[in-house]
Amino acid sequence: MALAVPAVVRGELVEGPLVEFGGRGETGFAVADPAAVVPRLGRRNLALSRELAALDLDEVLDYLAELGARLVDNEYLDEAVERSAGLADTPPGLVRSNHRLLPGLFAREATEEVVAAIGRDVLTGWPERRMADGRVGAVHAFGVRSAHVIAGNSPLIAAMTLVRTAVTRGEAVVKTPSNDPLTMVALVRTMIDMAPGHPLTRAVSVAYWKGGDEALERRLYHPAAFDKIVAWGGMASVKHVVRYLEPGLELVTFDPKRSATILGPEAFEPAALDDVARRLALDVGAFNQVGCVNARVVYAVCDTGAAEDLARRVYAELRELPPTVSTAAGRIDTELRACLRALRAGGFHTVVGGEADEGAVIVSHLDEPVGFAGSLAGRVANIVPVETAEDAARHLDAATQTVGVYPAALRHRLREVLPLVGVQRTVELGCAVSVHPALPQDGFEPARRLVRWVTDEHLPAGSDPLDIVFPPHREEDP
Amino acid sequence: MSSQTATTEELFADDPLAWAGGDYRALHRLGQTELADLQLAALRRRFADLRGGLAVLDAMVADTGVEAIETLGDAIPLLFSPEVYKSYPASLLRRKRFDVLTGWLSRLTTVDLSGARASAATSIDDWLADLDASTDLRVQHSSVTSGTMSFVPHTHSEVDAMFSVVGARVRGGGDPVPVVWPMIRGGRSGIMRCADALAEHVAGGEDNVHAMHPGRMSADVMLLAGQIAAARARGEDVDADPGLLARREEFEVLRRESEAAMPGFVERLADTLRGRRVYLMNTWNTLHQVATAGLDRGLDGLFAADSLIEPGGGTKGAHMPDDWQDRVLRFTGADRLQHIYAMTETTALHPMCGEGRYHLEPWTVAFVLDPATDEPLPRTGTQTGRGAFFDLLARTHWGGFRSEDRITVAYEPCACGRSTPQVHDGIRRLKDVGDVDKINCAATDSAHRAALDHLSGGS
User: Fold this and answer.
1) Closest to B87 (Cα-Cα) out of A66, A322, A368
2) 3-class secondary structure, B218
3) What is the dihedral of CA A368, A373, A374, A376, to 10 degrees?
């Protein structure tokens, strides 16, 4: 029997009737009938908005902290791990590893950082600023109603979505992906068990439907239902959403991205090489390279021989990564294997590994990434020798999210120039895959984008409004 | 290399029509066992002949550990993906390193390229023209996928063997048949090369080829067009090659003329070929274009009812109305369409029978692979999966090809009376058809115009 995935409408579980969908792997699953569920997701509820706005921020953070504590040894997450085989991009063991990171996102010190990113004062009150023209402007951040089309390669995305929604005291409708229809539902079921009827519980709805189902989506995505659509990942999912945009409905996208690595000549000094290889293996292989943050193309200031030596070392380190962090892919990507064979035959590349599903490191003999660089997956990297680190910049653009760099001095130099071609994040080699939810991502500040910035303005007592409407009036008529 | 006395399997693979004593019909009526035995013997001979002389095959053997071929299925790990034919760094084209590219190409073919003067070439067109002139190689380039161009090293002799079969099929031993070519006449892409062979084997000479435009489709412009389209899909700009910009005027003339040519072309066809039996092979969208141009001018039933109209290659990304086949039939007056299945990497036009099945020419071994694992499905019954082929006609390059098509193959004899395995209609790309990075040969003509627009727009 197919895996049954319930929907959640405003904190209430909807377990049927079920409709079956094919999964991305061989496994299918059955979800609460979208035709019945989706029409219920597009209604605003002013009473709920009032309840949310009236919540004390500390109560919100307490709620999240308790939720986080309940995510340790959680039966719904355990079930999600067990049923993820054939659906998720990674083997169940790595889904479990990701789940072990979830409680940390809800801990008080983590949520306080999200609060600080927006500003505690604007979330809790109306801080005032006296402006140069004399007026007093007070600012408050209000929660909004958002539809989230989330990606399924990392369960952390579901948790970050919940934290941002709660901290801003907004409302979220989450459309889950077929490669992870489970995590978000598990989190929300835990909320229902913990605090049924709580406004924060009722603020979240979750459903799966086939992305791009225009008959359903056309009726859902409109300004009367949502203030924002937050779209993660693949070009297809973003493209689906774009056609529904109109004034009053703002699109926030975490676009499809790639990440890269730049190694200066210092990386090849004998004392550094082992550490560089291990760090690079982590950037390439952590959580099996399913994230946009994982390294794929590695630009290295070296010759072909040094690149081949590094490739052998990285390949060895990939296989030494702890199994909680990285494993063999578990299934052979036949397309990628065919590409690797073509490279071996073509004579312009050296391929280390890639015999089965264990990963591989390709060395380009010329200073050019492989033609299929965008499809590198399952722990396959491409080292490209370049003359200078700056030469790498011509291969990078706004679709480049993260660039891992070694050494630090080079990173300091590159952070001044890479953003000019569109790069959004430079990071110490080895740390690429760890994204901090309270820092900007993809070139913007996600939590600050998920609120309505409202101002309340007045003049000091006794002022003449004409003074600010038309300041020259003061000179003309003293 | 092969022995002096041609064995029967050698003749079967080198010149199937001669092997069959000129009887094309007989080629599709061999017993299943007889055909499989012939194919295996020919495959083993190809493997033995090419081992040691073809660097790319030797590399593949080293990579896969397949040292011997005892059954047809043993060749499966050695099938080349399309990536093999573009496994050179794309920058070599930009840097005009045709000497290095020739070295790469020599890994893919046993044809001696030492006489080629590649270092003198300043464009792909020059490079390929020189290879045409100085060797037996007739490289077929692809349209542009993800910004790169494939080069498949067929030879004149191999293409000749293939089109002598097409000639026999079309002419049935009779007189030459006029070839209608609703495109620019010249070029070196897979389809453009067909026009040369059709001139020889079907039309009986260039005078009997009726092309829309006498010009030549430039490989350089096609590459630029593909790169522009790929760059646009990524929201980027392409810096046009200064050499191409210099040829702007030449391209401009070709563009203006080819855009304007279709109406005059159908009028010329009406004047010169009305009522004649013709041969008209092209992609679905091109056939639809010529039919539309004709019908718009009130021209219908133009040719004899027994004309051979052969659509192949799908829509090439173009939007096609549901009734396009009716419109082609109405314009041409043919009583039926003879659909064909073909790909640049193999030397065959596999014709569809009255039962709606594409019959694989007997020198083509068909495999169906499990798309998830690449494991072969049994060569019995009816199987669906990744289509893979061994083209036994290829004797100077490796004929094993792992396609990107999802196909259904029936191995049992067909109700039409032919015994050869058949590919069902409804061939799909395994990859997502809507992939924005996938710009295929289809868009060639319109992408060609986009490139010319880019060039004429100045920089």
Assistant:
1) A368
2) coil
3) -160
Please write the tens of the pLDDT for every residue from B41-67. Answer: 999 999 999 999 999 999 999 888 999
On chain B, the residues whose CB falls within 8 A of the CB of A349 are 87
Name the nearest CA neighbour of A170 among A459, A458, A469, A447: A447
Count the Cβ atoms, other than its own, within 10 Å of residue B240.
18
Give the C-alpha separation, B138 to B141, whole Å: 10
Cα separation, B126 vs B136, in Å, equals 16
- In degrees, to the nearest 5, what angle opens at C-alpha A103 toward C-alphas A100 and A105? 110
Q: Cα–Cα distance between B211 and B213 in angstroms, integer?
A: 5
Q: Does the pLDDT of residue A331 top 80, yes or no?
A: no
Task: From A196, A197, A191, A186, select the one nearest A165 (Cα to Cα).
Answer: A191
- Report helix, strand or coil for A441: strand
Q: C-alpha angle B317/B266/B179, rounded to 5°?
A: 80
A26 in Cβ contact with A176 (< 8 Å): no
The residue with tokens 């120039």 is A417
Q: Which of B377, B366, B374 is nearest to B423 (CA)?
A: B366
Distances (CA, A) of B198 to B87, B180, B336: 30, 10, 21
Q: Looking at beta carbons, which residues of chain B come within 8 Å of A27? A: none
Q: Are A300 and A310 in contact (CB under 8 A)?
A: yes
d(CA A339, CA B431): 14
d(CA B403, CA B398): 14
Q: Do A372 and B83 make contact, defined as CB atoms within 8 angstroms? A: yes
Residues 6+ apart with CB under 8 A from A290: A89, A90, A153, A154, A377
| Residue B440 clears pLDDT 80, i.e. is over it | no
Name the DSSP class of A126.
-
Model pTM?
Answer: 0.86
Dist CA B320 CA B327 (whole Å): 11
> What is the rounded (10 degree) CA torsion for B339, B343, B344, B346?
-110
Whether A334 sits inside 8 A of B372 (CB atoms) is yes
- Higher-pLDDT residue of B458 and B191 is B191
The predicted-structure confidence for B108-120, as pLDDT tens digits, reads as follows: 999 999 988 877 8
In total, chain A counts a number of residues equal to 478
| CA B315 to each of CA B40, B166, B282, B358, B441: distance values in angstroms, whole numbers, following the listed order | 35, 23, 11, 17, 10
Evaluate if residue B2 carries a pLDDT over 50: no
> Out of B90, B104, B146, whose CB is closest to A346?
B104
Q: Which of B441, B427, B443 is nearest to B344 (CA)?
A: B441
Q: Which numeric CATH code is attached to A258-428?
A: 3.40.309.10
Taking the Cβ of residue B437 and every Cβ of chain A, the question of whether any pair is shorter than 8 Å is answered with yes
Is-same-fold flag (A3-256; A258-428)?
no
Give the whole-angstrom CA distance, residue A240 versus residue B248: 39
Task: Give this complex's ipTM.
Answer: 0.80
E strand spans, A306-450? 349-353, 360-364, 380-386, 400-406, 425-428
Neighbouring-strand partners of residue B213:
B184
H-helix segments, A293-333? 304-320
When pLDDT is averaged across residues A31-60 and rounded to a whole number, the result is 94
Domain A3-256, CATH class in plain words:
alpha beta
- DSSP notation for A32-80: E-HHHHGGGSS---HHHHHHHHHS-HHHHHHHHHHHHHHTTT-HHHHHH
Looking at beta carbons, which residues of chain A come within 8 Å of B437?
A: 374
| Cβ contacts of B227 on chain A, cutoff 8 Å | none
- How far away is chain B from the Cα of A453, in angstroms, using its nearest Cα? 31
Pick from B251, B249, B313: which is nearest to B284 by CA? Answer: B313
CB of A189 closer than 8 Å to CB of A8:
yes
| CA B322, B328, B333, B338 torsion-angle sign | negative
